[in-house]
Every structure is written in structure tokens, then in C-alpha cells.
Amino acid sequence: MANRRIDLRRIKIHQSYTVNEAANILSSHPNTVRKWIKKGLPLAEERHPILLRGRDIRDFHQDRKAKKKCRLAPGEFYCFKCQAPKRAAFDAVDYYAISSTIGNLKGLCPDCSTIMNRRTSIKTLDAAKGDLEVTIQVSPTTPKREDEA
What is the sign of the dihedral through the CA atoms of 71, 74, 77 and 82? Predict the structure, then answer.
């Protein structure tokens, strides 16, 4: 099952919610909220009905989101299939321009051969590529800059 993004703006930080109220506001199932409690979402009080503070719900989800973030080193890509940062196979990547200022670096995962992408601008291309060999590809749909025309 795919993970959905939770809109934390719908939670008011100075309000308390029951499990069902929190589930309705976040468009989740009450059992999902109960799983969050088992994973560490703090309770307002240890009695029934179970109450959750809005501030605690927001903090819990912001902490989970921060733990999932992954900073890539120069020359690294994130492989979605392996779910890990990887260097491109053969230490070679292609750069495809999307516009005159931004483009994608594309390389193969050395473990699963999935195509990995990393968005970068022309200005930060050297920092993003690290020590990888880059081949700049020209696609027929790439818009030309005014100075090239």
C-alpha cells in the first residue's frame, strides 16, 4: 500500500483529538492512528477516551519525516528500488537539460540496474556530479537559450 502524505495543517496545535477525530481530520483509518500511538505518538492522558494533543501529532509526524530525509553526497543518487543512496554504475552519468538552467542527471543503480535521477541546475552540476564522468545529452525537446539561437 502506498504511503500518503498527511496534511498537518489541518491539525490545530492547541486542541485535543480523540482517535476517531484525528483519523477523520487526517483522512486516515482509526487503526492507523492507533499504530502511531504504538510507535510513540504520546497520549494526553492514560485513560479513556484516548486523547491526543494537536502539538504532539504534528511533532510526531515532523520527526518521522525528518528521519526519512536523506542527504546525498556529491556523486550519489537515491535508488527508489533499493531505497538507499548509491553511486552510479561505471561511475558515468548522463545530463539531460530540461530548460536552459536545470536538468536531470541519470545513472544506473549498480545493484538493481534501475535508472536513478538527480535534479540539478547547470550552476550546481559540478558539485552534484562529484567525481563522476558526465555526458551532456541533447534532446530534441530541450528549449534553446537565446544566445544559442
Answer: negative
Residue 46: CB atoms within 10 Å: 7
pLDDT by residue (tens digit) across 87-134?
999 989 999 998 888 999 999 999 999 999 999 988 888 888 888 888
Among 26, 49, 68, give the residue marking a domain's end: 68
Q: What range defines the domain where residue 24 resides?
A: 11-68
Amino acid identity, residue 81?
K
- Euclidean distance between CA atoms 105 and 70, whole angstroms: 18
Distance (Å, whole) CA 17 – CA 57: 9
Same domain, yes or no: 85 and 133: yes
Instruction: Indicate the pTM of the whole model.
Output: 0.55
The rounded distance, in Å, linking the Cα atoms of 71 and 16 is 35
